[in-house]
Amino acid sequence: MRRALRGFTLIELLVVMAIIGVLLSIAAPRYFNHVEHARDNALRQSLAVMRDAIDKFHADTDTWPATLDELVTRKYLRTIPEDPHTGSRDTWTVEAPGGGNGVFDVHSGATGATAEGQPLAEQ
């Protein structure tokens, strides 16, 4: 007696692959949209922490920090956070106070816009 080989037919495999493809086409855009929103939220949080440190430095010393690195050396920040859109700590752009020297405000150095359409450099 000969036993029949058991396995999946080509049609069954194609149907399963089509179902997986449909599920991925639904899930993948939502995943990438959530990743973009997470980057935007991380950027807002990093900016809030750095701006708070700048304000505390100014309240304590009555001067603005010369650089972001001064906030780290004076222990107002543990480290300069990484810009989530550029993946670097060196791309932050700083704003000097009223034509003077120092760091009054900080912005992302990334180009482009947030998921809501606001320019990253204006965050």
Brief synopsis:
The protein is mostly helical. Helix content is 47%, strand content 5%.
Reconstruct the topology from this structure.
Elements: H1 10-61, H2 68-73, E1 93-95, E2 105-107
Protein name: Prepilin-type N-terminal cleavage/methylation domain-containing protein
Transmembrane segments: 7-28
Region (Disordered): 82-123
- How many structural domains are formed by the residues? 1
C-alpha geometry: elongated
Tally of separate helices: 2
Instruction: Determine the structural class based on helices, strands and strand pairing.
Output: mainly alpha
Task: Outline the low-pLDDT stretches.
Answer: none
Could you give a short account of the major beta sheet?
Answer: 2 strands, antiparallel
Region (Disordered): 82-123
Keywords: Membrane, Methylation, Transmembrane, Transmembrane helix
Protein name: Prepilin-type N-terminal cleavage/methylation domain-containing protein
Transmembrane segments: 7-28
